[in-house]
Design brief:
The chain is α/β, with parallel strands linked by helices. It contains 4 helices and 7 strands; from the N terminus they run βααββββαββα. It has a single domain, classed as Transcription elongation factor, GreA/GreB, C-terminal domain (Chitinase A, domain 3), CATH 3.10.50. Helices cover 26% and strands 25% of the residues. Helix 1 packs antiparallel against helix 2.
Length: 135
């Protein structure tokens, strides 16, 4: 990562308990990745968050050469999953990568020959930009 990710102070304060309670998680590598991101993050108040940064509850449009069409996901806290399609937990590998990412960011999913490149092509909704401070 070339620069420190930008996170809102609200997201930071809500995510810290997830990291500190990491003993209950089976994906310790993702928890460690999220912990590193929180430790290096540049924190801003939600009202000053740039509109091109993925925050919690943002809806993102991802594209990949391996997919027929872009896919929309909403970045959610693990305890707030409703079972709707398109929900992506912040404690998943892709969810942890997306948090704090900016439009245009690219991620390699998987490893070896099965790896695929995914690009963050757009934010279709960001709570901070919409003034939804309760999310």
């Amino acid at each position: 990562m070339t620069s420190n990710p930008t996170l809102s102070t609200v997201d930071f304060s809500r995510l810290m308990p997830l990291v500190t309670a990491s003993a209950a998680h089976d994906q310790q590598d993702v928890v460690d990745q999220l912990d590193e991101k929180l430790a290096s993050a540049r924190l801003v108040e939600p009202e000053t968050m740039h509109g091109d940064v993925v925050t919690m509850n943002s809806k993102v449009l991802l594209s990949s050469p391996a997919w027929d069409a872009p896919r929309e996901y909403r970045l959610v806290y693990p305890g707030e999953r409703t079972g709707e399609s398109g929900e992506l937990s912040v404690l998943s590998a892709l969810g942890a990568e997306l948090l704090g990412a900016r439009i245009g960011a690219r991620f390699a999913l998987g490893s070896g020959p099965s790896s695929r490149l995914v690009e963050l092509s757009a934010l279709t909704y960001q709570p901070e930009a919409a003034g939804d401070w309760h999310l």
